Amino acid sequence: MPLVHATFPAAEREAGVQDLITGDASLMPIILRLAWPVVVMMYLQGAYNIIDTIWVGQLLGKFALAGIATGGFVLWSIFGLTSLVSVGISAMLARRIGEGNLPEAEYVAAKGIQYALLLSIAVGATLWFLVPALFGLMGTNAEVTELGTRYLRVILLGCPLIFLSFSIQRIFQAEGDTVTPMWLMFFTLIINTILDPVLMLGWFGLPKLGIAGAALATVIAQLLMVVSGIWLLRRRLRFRTKRLLHPVFRYVPHSLPVITAGRLRIHFAHNWSMDWRLFISTLRIGLPNAISQVLFPFVYMIITRLPAAYGPQYIAALRIGHTVEGISFFLALGFSIATATCLGQNLGANKPVRAGRAAWIATGIIVAILFVFSVLFFTFSSQIGSAFSPDLDAIMASARYLEILAFSQVFMGIEIVLEGAFSGAGNTFPAMAITVPLNLARIPVAYLLASTFGLGINGVWWSISGSSIAKGLVMAFWFSRGRWKRKKG
Q: In the chain, where are the structural domains located?
């Protein structure tokens, strides 16, 4: 992809986006304009998992696939812990931009990167020593445990890169720039796709790393994301998308990344002393979200003991099912982040009614889209499973899982979009109060349905789907009460 400099005044274009978010224009086009690059970025991010799943499943077999599935639960925990910084910084940054206080916004963004680096070192070191206990908790057999540990230990070496990449993405998005993170993710995905088979199979004279090669490819791609993102922020540069017609295929539209001037510039030289007040405010907003995100995979670690007892094909089904569900999950998460930006900036501009309207419009859009996805998941469950594994047992197990998940997709979308709305308001406690108890309820419900009520493995799948339905309904009720409008940021 060639990089060219734009010929239009990009700084004025940035200001135009800001004015649209907090102005009086129709909200649906604005939400779609903010959301589509985030949705694409989320799909690209989900493609990391899909590519790893396909390469590992096709080249290394179902035990290796089960290994990255179990290791992936811990990786989810790392992603969740990034919320300690990224969610709080994003909420405060959006408020400052909505207020028009750009110097304070730049300061908040710079401190967010610093806090992400410091916390990531502590998190990575702690999880490194907890790896054996975590696999013991999941009850996996010796071969799956060994492969999963090998995968996860490499990922943990890149823990600072994961924290930094998430924080950098949220800085761009809170600014109202959802295009730059999309292009950064696109470039890093290409690197990950190329490196996966090279490092796993030892091509071009490199050592054959197996499952560790898939992890190393992801770490290298994250490094590219962080270096590029910081470079852009320090120079107040951004990517934009320019539509072109290819000179050969005249009627086929192409999009090229264009480098333009941005709105915020990050300075680090004088910002390395600890601002404890800002740090505490960041944690206060981010901690409830992080707790929710970390407990989510923790619940799956425990629930995994049930599929493990039925056979490794059901652990593989979890991986396949979660990877496919990522299609709808990342779509909803993209609208969630766009909603957080729109809601946070409008609260900063003292427009709470417009902020609430943006959240409900985004929710309506996602409900309509995910209903279609539910039909597709249910109808083509076997065909979807066969794309990830040639093993007939794994295909049949994943097909049943997808059929049951299809009933909860719409409600999952409601939950995720409104959780983003709460985050944009800096009011993350209600979402935690809803998601944590209902996620934890999956454990006893799964055991009851599987054993006491005799549903077997289907009971585990129904406990997951049923709790998602409940979370969506309760989240919509709580948000409709409107108390988030009074939250100070």
A: 13-248+287-481
